[in-house]
Write a structure and sequence with these properties.
The structure holds 2 protein chains of 2 kinds. By secondary structure, chain A is mainly alpha-helical. Chain A has 11 helices and 2 strands, in the order ααααααααββααα. In chain A, strands 1-2 form a two-stranded antiparallel sheet. In chain A, β1 and β2 form a beta hairpin. Chain B is mostly helical. Chain B has one domain. Chain B has 9 helices and no strands. In chain B, α1 packs parallel to α8, α4 packs across α5 and α4 crosses α7. The longest helix of chain B has 30 residues. Chain B is globular. Classes of the chains: A mainly alpha, B mainly alpha. The interface between A and B is large, with 42 and 42 residues.
Amino acid sequence: MPGTAAQAKKALVTELWDDNPIFRQVLGICSALAVTNLMFNTLLMCLGLIWATALTSATVSALRSYIPPRVRMIAQVLIIAAYVIVVDIVFRAQFPDVHRAIGPYVGLIITNCIIMGRAEAFAIKNPVLPSLLDGFGAALGYSGVLMLVALIREPLGFGTVFGLPLPAREAWWHSWTIMIMPPGAFFVLALIVWAARARAMRLDAAKKAKEPPK
Amino acid sequence: MSQPTGPEAGAAIHLLTVLVSAALTDNILLTRFLGMCSFLAISRQMKAAAGLGLAVTFVTTITCAVNAAFYNLVLKPHGLESLQLILFIVVIAGFVQFLEMLIERVSLPLYYALGIFLPLITVNCAVLGAALFMTNRNYGVAEGLVFGFGSGAGWMLAIVLMAGIRERLKNAQIPPALEGPGITLIITGIIALGFVGFSGMVQP
């Protein structure tokens, strides 16, 4: 079915860039700020989020004709919670150090607006495969921004990338402690949102200029 | 009244420490980043911000105490800590639903005033976050109650501060792309810098 494939690809691309949840809607930024002072922690968090979002969307979509509309919110929350508990247990067993550092934020994936947002906006009325890709794309776009924030914060704050020190760091680098602390996260995310919005506004203006005047 | 002495005074001081650290030094919004979505969306007007802040404080206080009780008395003795997520989210959703019905019955004007905020609280991560940080620190029921109140009050303090600043920003000239979330994040960063100054107050 070429139609379905094209639709699925469109869902993926839209969510990944055009409607990127952080740039466009500024949603779900709690964890974007909290876990991003180390890239490795961020990567794990992103994998957990992608897993939970994609599978929740697929599950909600598969069950969409069985969930009564009145209780759909609580049903969605329980589906999300089930997947997040899996993430929590895996992290606790495989990465105990990381789990100690970001523990509560793993649980907070449940209230990440992106998961519920995609389930509610897309998965509840679309077939399974496009829903899976839609959730995957949304989480991937979100993860991209998270990794970008971490890529700015970790080198500036610790002088390392993925825990590896920058070359000859002692000779020339002085860490900016503020980047590890909460205010640094706010400033970096603000600058990224600013840049993304400025670009989007320029593109919109260019598109308008091309259209013939009415 | 006689001066409290001995273990009682120690317990009172401990609870006070929990309260101050939850509200100021470990402010749930400014240092834990929780509840950002509604913080960014609702902080445009003082009245709405204060209303939501009150609702969040109330819900966080009660749900933290209830969750602490369930966690310490039911889950922990049976070794079911991994189910805490489901327990917490169900308690929060259930309590908010109950509160909504109760307010509708008791006071219709209050119901309309709070209207949209109540369902929003279920997905406010500050409420769930407070419960998770509470178990992370092994707090009991009394500490949980105080910690919940402190977290909620700290969140309300932050959103009210922000609403006050944003009402004045209406006349400021801001680059168009920075308007809305961008400038709000920058101001939040500056407020957070101020709150870093509280960090010496409580010895962990």
